[in-house]
Amino acid sequence: MDITPTSEQPFAPPVLTIGPEAQSYLKTAGKWASFLGILGFVFCGLIFIVAFFAGSIFTRYAALSASPFAAAMAGAGWAVTFFYLLVDVFYFFFSLYLYQFGSKIKKGITFFDNAHITNAFDKLKSFFTLWGITTIVILCIYGLVIVIAIIVAITTASAMH
Fold first, then answer.
1. Cα–Cα distance for residue pair 73/112, rounded to 1 Å
2. In three state form, how does the secondary structure of 87-125 look?
């Protein structure tokens, strides 16, 4: 059986190379990402501490204030603690993905390691995915609040007449 080459060769995808200038930019971005990730971890610790003191702060405020609103705040201390802990968990993952991107991209560029660079971009993708989903959820909440505010305004205006 004679196999002769045909003009139909399999398509080889082009190889992407990162030039020295782009490598320098990535290394600098990695340094900033690591810095922001570490700073984020520090703030996560502070938010965690504040979360557990928020309930007692609200209770103490209610004891010192004669306002009826202050009593409601004391009862909502657990909700504030829960909210702060929820924010802390989200902030932790943002910081973690940034830190992982920063450390992996610096190693990948320094040691010319494609596996580290690929993993770094995976962490960057995860960071932006989390950021995008969080943004969509916040926009939906804003939309819901606006719709509720309009309904309350219409209901209040019609009740006044």
1. 56
2. HHHHHHHHHHHHHHHHHHHHHHHHHCCHHHHHHHHHHHH
Query: With 60 as the cut, is the pLDDT of residue 28 above it?
Result: yes
User: Cβ(31)–Cβ(43) under 8 Å?
Assistant: no
Tokens at 142, concatenated: 């804003």
Which residues have C-beta within 8 Å of that of residue 69, sequence separation ≥ 6?
none
Query: What CA–CA distance (Å, rounded) separates 46 from 24?
Result: 33
Cα separation values, 75 from 51, 56, 86, 133, 148, Å = 15, 10, 19, 32, 25
Q: How far apart are CA 148 and CA 60, in angstroms?
A: 33
Contacts of 54 (CB under 8 A, 6+ apart): 77, 80, 81, 84
Higher pLDDT, 6 or 116: 116
Res 87: pLDDT:
94
**For residues 49 and 46, what is the distance between their CA atoms, to the nearest angstrom?**
5
Full-model pTM? 0.80
Q: Identify the residue with better confidence: 96 or 10.
A: 96
The per-residue pLDDT for range 87-111, each reduced to its tens digit, is: 999 999 999 999 999 999 999 999 9
